[in-house]
Amino acid sequence: MALHIGLLGKKLGMTQVFADDGEAVPVTVIQAGPNHVVGTRTIERDGYSALVLGFDEKPLRLANKAEIGQGKATNGKPQRFVREIRLAAEEVAKFTVGQTISPKDVFADGLPIDVEGWSKGKGFQGVIKRHHMSGMTRAHGTHEYFRHGGSIGCRLTPQRVHKGKRMAGQMGNEKKTIQNLQLFRILEEDGVILVRGAVPGANNDYVVVTKAATRKVYQRKGVGKEEVRSKNPLKASKKAAAGRG
Predict the structure, then answer these.
(1) What pLDDT score was predicted for residue 238?
(2) What whole-number distance in Å separates Cα of residue 192 and Cα of residue 228?
(3) Which of 171, 203, 232 is the last residue of a domain?
(4) What local confidence, expressed as pLDDT, does residue 33 receive?
(5) Are 160 and 77 a contacting pair, CB within 8 Å?
(6) Residue 1 forms part of a structural domain
(7) Which terminus of the chain has fewer Cβ atoms in its 10 Å neighbourhood, N or C?
């Protein structure tokens, strides 16, 4: 399991910003600070090492006794969103309970990151929307079967529906992790990070942002590759005639 430092945050929405070369970049705005260290997990006491982070202060009138006690132990207020970030023991030792962490302490502009969140719930949906099936033809002989799922069984053998059969059911509201996004920019004064692209969840949903588990350098898909020239002279002449050669 990859152990990478991360922060908790809240998805605020999407916008676009301009890069230094003038490119208009679509970004997701995430409020990622400040994060508070509300506890630690050690191998000696808990059997594993982790950092317990809290984000978004909760009013005392809404907190239960456990949350109030946790806030007193850290000399702070109860937190709405609390999660554990698995880290190596030597990394956990660098932090103290009650410490405040900002995005600049963990991330840097341009780094690849992973964002975990809960996708939007869409309720009970049919096979057309849920699994992108094509449906029936709209001919004269078709009656009320345009968006049906069709046959699902196997007759005499094996007399049951196979496990994993694509059928209508609950869609969305699942934990999703989008990997290898670019942390485009950090707005230190506002405690906000701008992430290139879309992240799971609706606006004002909580997310977990960590350093990418599989990459250390961000690379846009399809960018920086030279186009392979065709060896067919006929195709090459057509491209030249179209102004693409």
Answers:
(1) 62
(2) 40
(3) 171
(4) 82
(5) no
(6) no
(7) N
**pLDDT tens digits for range 54-103:** 998 888 888 998 888 888 877 778 999 999 999 999 999 999 998 999 99
Closest Cα to residue 102, out of 18, 202, 5, 3?
5
Under a CB-based contact definition with an 8 Å cutoff, are residues 199 and 28 in contact? yes
153: containing domain: 122-171
- Residues 59, 104: one domain? yes
Same domain as 83, residue 58: yes
26 and 99 part of one domain:
yes
| Type of residue numbered 47 | G
CA distances, 16 to each of 8, 46, 181, 195, 198 (Å): 22, 44, 15, 10, 12
For residue 199, which amino acid is it? V
Q: 220: left (phi > 0), else alpha (psi -120 to 50), else beta?
A: beta
pLDDT digits (tens, 9 = 90+) for 5-46: 899 999 999 999 999 889 999 999 999 989 999 999 999 999
Per-residue pLDDT tens over the stretch 197-237: 899 999 999 999 999 999 889 888 767 655 566 566 666 66
Structural domain total, the chain: 2
Q: Are residues 109 and 126 in the same domain?
A: no
Residue 109 has pLDDT above 80, yes or no: yes
The phi, psi pair for 7, rounded to 5°, reads: -135, 160
Instruction: Report, as an integer, the average pLDDT of 154-182.
Output: 92
Domain membership flag for residue 148: yes
One domain, residues 20 and 126: no
- Regarding whether 179 and 67 lie in a shared domain, the answer is yes
Cβ burial of 243 (10 Å; 0-12, 13-18, 19+) is: exposed
